[in-house]
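Subject: Predicted fold for NudC domain-containing protein 1, 307 residues

User T.R. writes:
Posting the sequence so we have a shared reference for the thread.
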Amino acid sequence: MTLIHMSLTLEGVHQVWEIPSNESRVPGHWNVCLQFVSQDLCVLSDGAGTLHVVNTHNVPWTVEYSSEVLGKGSIFSILDSVLCDSNDSQVLHTCLLSVQEVKEETTDESEDKKKNRTKRPLDGESSSKLVNVINWISLHRTEQGWCLKRQRQIHVPGVVHYLALNKLGSALYLLADKSFTFVSDSEKQILPPEPKSKPNQEPAYFWQQTNQDVTLWFPMNSDVTKGDVNISVTNADIRVTCRDKDLLSGNTVQTIDANLTTWKIEKDRLEIVLQKSSPVPWTGIVRGDERGEEILDPQLVEEGVNI
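User M.O. replies:
I've generated the structure tokens; pasting them so everyone works from the same file.
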């Protein structure tokens, strides 16, 4: 495969380099991918699994580095590359996109699913899926030439829409359909993220719903009167204050009929009843507010449990 140079005036075509044929082209190989990282240096993927770093200062071009950097038979394309100066040396960062088959263990399967299974693995066997893999490769220029210094790998289950390295080669920008995961780094161990735990605290309010309405209960001090409470309701938002302190404020998850709102104070709690505009189940009261707890058993409210 030959690279050519063509002037803007289309006066002539010149051969500048012939790509080495490390692998014979076969169906399934990808297109050649080329990126210039400086005035006299480019990075090239031959589409068959070999990465070349090529000096373009003179014709013919000369190869400074050539390697099946992801392993034998692993083909890839180049998403982005940058050349950076570092401690009187140069570092070439390049992000390579490949596709990898990831195995998943399947252990839980009901008897009905086993009977109706079509082309699915048995218990204890593994299924597999294809994921996009971003291989972040860092090459350092030494007196002996380019050498592989660091390799990082990111798994992206969905489509990779955009990727770019910053000018320093210290970070990348990635836009994808789904959350991605750093799975390996040749210089340091990748630790799994710590599971998020909700703080152990009492709910700020309780609520219950039917197809027609939503009822809220706020715990109150025994000396609170109606004059201490202010409730403002529209068809799409609610604000509840007690002695100038906000108890709840924001847009409701569904619309309500504000004119039918009722409220009262009894048994050291404030009760508010909101009329639904439609019999749609609510997932909460106010968008983004998770301080409330839904009561599914009306008897708990009557008994005053935790309220």
